[in-house]
Every structure is written in C-alpha cells, then in structure tokens.
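Quick review question:
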C-alpha cells in the first residue's frame, strides 16, 4: 500500500473527532460533509466505486442538504409582539427602547446560533393565545398593554416565554432594568400569567 492511503485513512478518525466536538451546527454540518468526502475517497482508492458513489451522493450530498434545511428551520426563536408596539404613532422613545430590546435579544441568541423572528399580532388576546397554542416561543408586552394591576412594577417590558431553556438563556445573558422575564404559558381569563 502507498503511504498516502495511510494518511487518508488517518483523516477519518481525526475528522470524526472534530465532528463530535463541534458546538456550532453549521460547522458540524460542514465537517460532516468533509467526513463523507474522505470516506468516498477511501472507497474509491480501495476499488469500491459503487460504494464510493453511494457515499458521495446519499451520505454526503443528500444528507448534508437535508440537515442544512432542518437546521435552518429549527434554530428560530419566534417572539410575538403587538403591531402598535412598532407603529409610527407610538412614541419615539418607546420605539427606540423596543428596538434596543430586540437588538439585545438578537445578540444573545446569535451566541447560541439561534435566529430571532418577530411575529406581530393585532391584539393582546391573540398574542397571549399564540403563546398558549405554541405558535410563538415568547411574547413581549409593554406595561400599558398588561394593565397596571397585572404589570410588574417598575418594568417597561415584560417578556414571557413558554420554554424553560429559553428562559434560562435570557435570564443568564440579558441585563436590563426595563425588562422583566417570566416563564409560563397559561393565562387566566383576564390575561394574567398563571
């Protein structure tokens, strides 16, 4: 056997180890593609052209494509807000605070390879229902929308999430005197978080 075959064969466990320790799903996907290409090359060198072709087409090309689609669609955090929170008639200070809040969340979620998607609703009952029906992962309410009797005093925004891990990420990384972050997904008839 030629020495280059040993080198290529040594790459398989090395790339496999790199794949195991990847935390970024996109890098892991790229590493999986490289691993499949090396395996296809090894099969070709060993004389198994049919197995090499199958590995290249199915194991590498098709699998990587399907995983890319799955990763892209599953790493999204949907945040529900009311339309009037982003409207023109809302105060400039309120809009800038909301934009700062969204920018901070985008920064936090980027660390975890998550994409923030903003979903707008016309009224607060639809917004709260969307959280209970698992259409969104979290909702953002302003103090005026909650009502003084239900709002957490001193906070401008209240973020409510139905996912415990998402709540933990937000609590650990988000520091704001204007925002209260709560965990739960059930509301009473009056809109109070249970």
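Suggested answer, residue by residue:
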């Amino acid at each position: 056997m030629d020495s280059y075959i040993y080198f290529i064969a040594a790459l398989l466990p090395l790339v496999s180890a790199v794949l195991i320790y990847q935390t970024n799903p996109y890098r892991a996907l790229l590493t999986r593609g490289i691993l499949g290409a090396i395996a296809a090359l090894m099969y070709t060198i060993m004389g198994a052209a049919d197995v090499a072709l199958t590995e290249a087409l199915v194991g590498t090309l098709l699998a990587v494509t399907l995983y890319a689609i799955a990763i892209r669609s599953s790493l999204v955090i949907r945040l529900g807000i009311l339309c009037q929170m982003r409207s023109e008639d809302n105060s400039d200070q309120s809009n800038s605070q909301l934009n700062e809040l969204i920018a901070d969340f985008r920064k936090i979620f980027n660390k975890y390879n998550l994409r923030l998607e903003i979903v707008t609703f016309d009224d607060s009952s639809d917004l709260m229902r969307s959280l209970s029906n698992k259409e969104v992962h979290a909702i953002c309410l302003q103090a005026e929308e909650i009502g003084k009797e239900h709002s957490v005093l001193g906070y401008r925004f209240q973020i409510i999430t139905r996912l415990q891990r998402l709540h933990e990420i937000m609590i650990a990384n988000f520091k704001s005197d204007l925002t209260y972050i709560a965990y739960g997904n059930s509301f009473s008839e009056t809109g109070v978080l249970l």
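Why it works: The mean pLDDT is 82. Residues 49-74 form the longest helix (26 residues).
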